[in-house]
Design a protein that fits this description.
Rossmann fold, creatininase activity, zinc, metal ion binding, metal-binding, alpha/beta
Length: 252
Amino acid sequence: MKRAFVEHTWKEIEALPKDPGVVVLPIGAIEQHGPHLPLCTDAKLAEATVQRAFEALPAEVAAWYLPVQSYGKSNEHTGYPGTLALSASTLMGVVRDIAVSLHRAGFRRLMLFNAHGGNKALLEMMCRDLRAELGLLCFLVQGQVDASRLPPSEQRFGIHAGTLETALMLHLTPGLVRQPLPPARYPRFDSQNFNLTLLPQVAWLTRDWSPEGHFGNPQAAVAEAGQAWFEEMAHRLAELIAEASTFEVAYG
């Protein structure tokens, strides 16, 4: 089965079985990732993870992947040259238009694989709206890895170009990782009530805490750990794609 959606002709798309079946849209961002990682980090991670997941997918699973949506909602990184941020309304419009096109072609399921934290809340809302508007079964998936061996400070604050993302990029595109790696940068965050990423949450911009643009410890990153995390993330995604391809809502 040809997995790349855009490599089909329109006649082939028309003839594809739509149910069961799911179309996967990888979504990333083009934004600063500190002094050591390229602007395309999130887009690269989204694209590579989806492609690796499809390599691991059983042949009988009806699923196809779209080209990566490289641009995302990245206004937390404005002020750093090179960040190309879409507004919330623009990204919502793009995702909706893609979903409408798939729906018109007869597809019933759409999975969004998101590799940029700044997109998450918006995409959660979009999945619900698309379900209500079009009847599409929509799924939102973030990369999932076991980071329990990282130090507590890295687990809490290493959320951008820290150990995890740097290790992933050292595995995937080592030639794009600039050396020497910068030292750790953790925000001074003394609140016991508010958090950066979990509710109750405070709205923040990267420049509030990191002039260099990264949160976490890049110097602890190694390619071997990145490979293990990448394979874990891709195989978990493959499992979710397989389940989503036949997922149905049902009354109890």
